[in-house]
Amino acid sequence: MEILKKYSLLLRLIAGIIIGILIGMLDNEILIRIFATFNDLFGQLLNFTIPLIILAFITYGISNLQTKSKNLLAATVGISYSSTIIMGTFAYLVASNLLPDLLAGKSIADITARDVNMSSYITGLKILPLMDVMTALVLAFIIGIGLATKGSPSTLKSAFEDFHSIVSLFVSKVIIPLLPIFIAGTFAKMSYAGKVGAVMSSFLMVFILAISMHIIALCIQYTIAGTVAKKNPFMLLKNMIPAYITAVGTQSSAATIPVTAQSIKNNAVKPQIAEFVSSLCATIHLSGSMITITTCSIAVMILSGYTFSITNMIPFILILGVMMVAAPGLPGGAIMAAVGILQSSLGFNEAMTALMITLYLAQDSFGTACNVTGDGAIAVIVNKIADK
């Protein structure tokens, strides 16, 4: 029962996919349009919520980046962001070279051919976001850095803590539970248009590629850490296996912190450094999530007939690395934080967003495991810096 509870969202998403495919196969226009109506309204609600997620979580995360050693804080944040960006670039280079061939002949680009029969029953209702994604991001940084610099408790910081709690509650109690219906509607539409086979056969290839890159990324991170600390990288990585396995089971970087910290201590890292890095990096270091989101976004663009290049993907990766600060605290939080930049930077529409969410959540536990295991490599490097 505990395992089912941990993976309940994934199981509901799988059920949504199956139900959506079956509904599409019924070829019933009324049912399709009912789901299309829900997807239209939910999509607007999701777009309205994204800037709130960014403002609430990034402000909250940055305002709490406080430690007695500002040099160690700066070093840890710099290494974490660099690791996240490097792994995102690595994922782009691999996925952009392999996926076009792996996904050749699989396309949902002409899914709109029957859109006339898949339109929403409600067309006049518009839920407009309070601000766009970049405005929310800049505002979050201004307020977050200001609150972190101020240091002492303030009314504004207390207000943003409450705001963070409210947005988190809304996402966990409303947005996340409705995702399976949103996914069902998307797959019903694809099934109705005869395109679901191309999508399903593509999922496995993308899944295997992402996890393979997670493993390679960890080897790279620990090779660098081992070189800096003059230790055997494979022994360092071996000591982090308990953290990896725990993260696969919990699907949460935060819930894995005690095991992560102990695993890091087993690599002869000072206890205070281990506890500091494991707690901070659970918030700011999401290299595994970056690999998955970058890989899946390229896959979805290929399937949808969109073009991509290094000129639009690198800015996307750089901004996404910052957006990842908003991810912790939510199930599948990384993809929820990334939806806004996917839409504004890469032009994702409703169907593409639904595919991204499905692809990401299907391997969320492995991405989380890569995140926390990578934290151990950063801790080894920070420990060496602290010695100096």
Give an overview of the whole structure:
The protein has 388 residues and is mainly α. It has one domain: Proton glutamate symport protein, CATH 1.10.3860. The protein contains 16 helices and no strands. α3 runs antiparallel to α6, α7 packs antiparallel against α12 and α9 runs antiparallel to α16 (364-387). The chain is globular.
Annotate the secondary structure layout.
Blueprint: H1 2-6, H2 8-25, H3 29-63, H4 70-102, H5 133-150, H6 155-192, H7 196-229, H8 233-238, H9 241-250, H10 257-265, H11 271-284, H12 287-303, H13 310-323, H14 333-346, H15 350-362, H16 364-387
Helix pairs in contact: 2-6, 3-5, 3-6, 3-14, 4-7, 4-11, 4-12, 4-13, 4-16, 7-12, 7-16, 9-10, 9-16, 10-11, 10-16, 11-16, 12-14, 12-15, 12-16, 13-14, 14-15
Tags for this entry?
388 residues; 16 helices; disordered N terminus; Proton glutamate symport protein; mainly alpha
Series of H and E elements = HHHHHHHHHHHHHHHH
Cα Rg: 21 Å
Mean pLDDT: 82
CATH C-level: Mainly Alpha
Query: Count of DSSP helices?
Result: 16
Shape: globular
Structural class assignment: mainly alpha
Number of domains: 1
Detail the poorly predicted runs: 1-6, 111-117
CATH topology, by name, is: Proton glutamate symport protein
User: What profile does the largest beta sheet have?
Assistant: none
Count of individual beta strands: 0
Gap from first CA to last CA: 49 Å
Q: Helix fraction? A: over 70%
Strand content: under 5%
Gross CATH architecture: Orthogonal Bundle
